[in-house]
Each structure stands twice: as C-alpha cells, then as structure tokens.
What we know:
three-stranded antiparallel β-sheet, Wadjet protein JetD C-terminal domain-containing protein, about 45% helix, alpha/beta
Amino acid sequence: MNWxxxxxxxxxxxxxxxxxTDQFVSDAxxxxxxxxxxxxxxxxxxxxVNNSREESFLEYYELKYLPKYQRYNALLDKHKLLTxxxxxxxxxVRYEEDELAVLLKLDEQxxxxxxxxxxxxxxxxxxxxxxxxxxxxxxDEKYLDEKKSLVEALKRVLDxxxxxxxxxxxxxxxxxxxxxxxxxxxxxLDFLRRPTRPRKYQIELWYAGGRNTPKLEYERTLLxxxxxxxxxxxxxxxxxxxxxxxxxxTIQLLTPISNAINLADSPNHHSYWEELDSTWIDNISExxxxxxxKNIINNLIAKEAWIRExxxxxxxxxxxxxxxxxx
Length: 327
C-alpha cells in the first residue's frame, strides 16, 4: 500500500468517506474491504464505510493500520515531507510502505547514532544515489532511479545536502544546429527521432531523460535563445514541467494542438490524474502556468483524459504558440 492509499484509508477511519479514485479502489487491500468483508462500499463518486459494518471496520483499522499510519505520518511531518518549501501541504506524496519502513528505520538509527559512521562516509566519499540505493534499498542500485521524492526524503532523514547522481547529472541529448534560433526541450524522445523539419527552422532539440533534470541547471547560463518545453499533458508531465521550470526559469510551456485521449483507452499509460490535482494546478503561479493552461488541464482532469506529446506536429505547435513564423 502506498502513502496516498494509506491517507485515504485513514480518511475513511476519521470521516467515514473519501473521494473514489481508480488507484485507490484498485488497491488489493481496498478491494478486500469492498468485495470480501463488505466493510466499504462505493457510493457515487465516494468510497464510504458501510454503516452495518462500521464497528468491524474501525476495530480492524485500529488494530492493523492505525499504529503504522501514525508512525509514518510523524516521520513525514518531522522531516517536512508533507509540505512544500512554502509550507503548503503537498497533494502528491507517493512513498510505498516498504520505502517508508526503510526511512523510519534510518530515522531511528540517526537518533541512536548507529548510522553516524556510514553517514560520514557517504558525505566524505561523495557517494552516488545508486551507491546509497544499494546500501539501504533492498541491495538494488537502481531502485532510486526515477524516484526524486524518495531521494529527497532520504537526504532529509540522513541530514545530507547532496548525493552524486550517476544518471541524472551526466548526460543530455542535443540535436545541435549552427546559429540556433530556439531550443525545444522534449519530455520524450520521439521528436528527436524526426529532426529534419526542426533543423530547417534552426530549432535545436534537447532530451534530458524525463525526470532526470538536475543537469539542466548547468544549461541556465549557456542559453542565448528562447527555450520551450514540450511534454505529455498528464499528471507526471505537468509535475516534471514544474521541476524543469525551477531549474530553467525562462522556459515556456508549449500549448498542445492535438486531441485529447481518454485514459480508459490508454491501458499502457500509467500517469493518471489524482485526487486534488485540480487544487494543485490552480495553486501554481500564473508565471509558471497560465490561466489558459490551467483551463486545459482542468478540462482534461474532468474528462479523465490526457494529451500525448508525440501526437502534436512540433512545427505547427510552435507556430500556434507564436514561437516561430511559418516559412
């Protein structure tokens, strides 16, 4: 069970109701409460506690789930992992239970001093993310790849400012062109596989590897032309864009021109809108996300749809966004 599911299950304990999401009701534990014990049921857009089984549900939750929820919540609150840098509550906290168990154990070891020597060596040797991953996460050096929030949590628990990133800081793909007029940073590789038309417009294409964005900070002082961002318009795509915007403040988000796709028609797509995404989007500053962008996203959320980056014609999208003129 991940933390999002755990918090919604706790809402059922405290409020007897929570908003239904595909991710929540598909969880094996929640399926058991709904289909096996009948202690929970779906009522329109909500999951609620079955009145006739309320006492049984509360007793079982208090026995099996409440103590763990309280320990993990205290851990996350202690290290300010439930709020952003401005103190506002985060709507996306995605740790898995076994990850939280690792963080909790490390926090206890930090308190009793048993991990002090290892922490000292990590700092002195400038240990990499993969090295630390192998130490603490199931002897798997790649476990922390693509897990930015978990890496941040680990650094806070260990009170370490920086870990070397074997993967994220070492490379960026660029289809360079002399006398470039603008740069387009792409979330996915597809446009870089079709470079002929962009080169006619003196457009340089970059790909930094999805969430592997730290190396972009080194590009900030090298940019001498406008830069635009092309991405999937789904939860993950917009989340990555916020990270990119923080590293390259001048980057501009391209408004897509392709049609939306129903998430239900994309069985192999795994970035779903989540509860409170509309609140998250609405709270982003207009400097980072225009009102027009917010309207498009909220419409996608309401329709449970997304827009695939490669479905756009890149040149036509740039023309539509007034980034280039039609030749």
